[in-house]
Design a protein that fits this description.
Layout (H helix, E strand, L loop, with lengths): L1 H17 L29 E4 L6 E9 L15 E9 L7 E12 L7 E6 L8 E2 H5 L7 E9 L5 H4 L6 E11 L9 E11 L1
Bound molecules: 2-acetamido-2-deoxy-beta-D-glucopyranose (3 copies).
């Protein structure tokens, strides 16, 4: 008993020395109530995005989310059609045809620790692996130079996925676009954007 007490004392003392500014750690504290993770990157207030690859044909500097009538909405209800408005720059040729792959992640604590949050894969059963960007979003061609990429998203056909998503949690969409211009056989990736969002 004495051994454990002094071990605890030594550990606690070590923590205080290591970081004198940190509030004293209390044993049994639950950092994230009920095992929920804090919203990263201000996603409790607004959608947040960043590029997930460098040196690609499209750069994306801003993202807005609205309803069909261009009114800002937040959080986003995936059961209703919504529109992503991406402020982009096309550094290369015009894109007349593109394919899109989407992965969905949920921000949650790990099995091993309630103090660590990770982006965990949400199974999408391959449904979002080969979306024809032009058919799905009706925004082709993507001209060269500065461009507002308007992505109207109607996810209702993916209800198998939407039904497993929980409300008022942080999610992340990894959106990768590939060049499918006629004559192009390489189908290189032209954009990768991460959109972090609270779903309702
Ligand atoms: C944790 O969950 C319980 C039961 O669902 C709820 O009453 C409580 O308000 C929750 N606490 C927080 C901090 O969310
Ligand atoms: C927050 O955004 C940055 C990029 O701006 C990203 O590197 C980081 O992983 C994001 N945080 C989380 C928890 O996703
Ligand atoms: C897209 O965003 C830009 C700037 O944020 C805005 O000027 C434009 O009207 C928006 N387009 C639509 C269709 O909402």
């Amino acid at each position: 008993m004495l051994y454990y007490l002094s071990l605890v004392a030594v550990l606690a003392f070590g923590l205080v020395i290591a970081n004198p500014l940190a509030p004293p750690a209390k044993f049994g504290d639950k950092p994230f109530p009920n095992g929920s993770c804090p919203f990263p990157n201000g996603t409790d207030k607004a959608i947040y995005s960043y590029m997930c690859a460098d040196n690609e044909q499209f750069t994306i500097t801003d993202i807005q989310v609205t309803d069909k009538n261009s009114n800002p909405i937040y959080p986003v209800d995936p059961r209703q059609e919504f529109i992503l408005n991406l402020t982009t720059y096309n550094h290369g040729q015009q894109i007349d045809d593109n394919h899109v792959k989407v992965k969905i992640y949920q921000y949650e604590t790990t099995y091993y620790s309630k103090e660590v949050c990770v982006w965990a894969d949400v199974p999408t059963f391959g449904l979002l692996n080969n979306i024809d960007g032009c058919d799905f979003a009706h925004n082709c061609p993507l001209t060269s130079g500065p461009l507002f990429l308007i992505l109207p998203l109607d996810l209702s056909q993916f209800s198998a996925i939407i039904n497993v998503l929980a409300a008022y949690k942080p999610y992340q969409l990894e959106i990768r676009m590939y060049n499918y211009n006629s004559g192009n056989t390489k189908h290189e990736e032209i954009a990768c954007v991460m959109a972090q969002v609270e779903l309702s």
